[in-house]
Design brief:
The chain is an all-alpha fold and about 200 residues long. The protein is built from 8 helices and no strands.
């Protein structure tokens, strides 16, 4: 995990001038978060219309917004429970609309690309299950930042696929689908190993 931490720290360093500008302009972390969510909605619609390259650019910008809002909140001392909740929820919305956009994109193919529609839906389900497993585990007081494919990697792969399109995009979607499900399984196994096998569970 140290490698991922180093990358995050370098990214924060690169974004420092932007964060300083936001502070000077009086832009709030919540404003950045909501702007990123709005961009994601536009990006998902654009992808559904078949403009994959534009969708990739918008996804990059919305991803940077997601990186900026947290750093901005910390620099202003405005980290709040509500802000963290909206930020995490916005991340889920972003993935949802992009994968829905991909479903519509493949539905518009002639003939309809049913296999890729299926894998897009599996990728969406896997992404949500992966995020839910971590959130639920951490809600129970357990660390669950494990797995081969977390959200930053999913976003990076999706950007790559959207930029190149065609068979590259199809391979990327299959990879995201498979690795997201694998990550979910890894997190379930991780929580299982951390807890007593005979422990009574609560309601799901």
């Amino acid at each position: 995990m140290s490698g991922k931490t180093d990358i995050k720290e370098r990214l924060r360093g690169l974004l420092s001038p932007v964060i300083a500008l936001c502070v000077y302009a009086g832009i709030t972390p919540m404003g950045i978060t909501l702007f990123g969510v709005f961009l994601s909605l536009v990006g998902g619609w654009v992808v559904g219309m078949g403009r994959l390259g534009t969708g990739a650019v918008i996804l990059i910008i919305s991803g940077l917004s997601d990186a900026i809002d947290g750093s901005l909140a910390r620099s202003q001392g405005k980290s709040t429970t509500l802000g963290a909740f909206i930020d995490s929820t916005g991340d889920r919305v972003s993935e949802l609309v992009y994968f829905i956009g991909l479903v519509f994109y493949f539905m518009g193919k002639t003939p309809v690309h049913n296999l890729m529609i299926f894998f897009s839906m599996v990728a969406l389900a896997g992404s949500f299950l992966t995020s839910y497993a971590r959130a639920r585990a951490e809600g129970l007081g357990l660390d669950c930042s494990v797995g081969v494919l977390e959200r930053p990697e999913r976003v990076a792969l999706l950007v790559f696929g959207l930029v190149f399109g065609g068979i590259v995009l199809e391979v990327v979607i299959v990879v995201i689908a498979v690795l997201s499900v694998l990550t979910f399984i890894q997190r379930v196994k991780h929580v299982w190993n951390l807890t007593a096998p005979g422990e009574n569970g609560g309601d799901c």
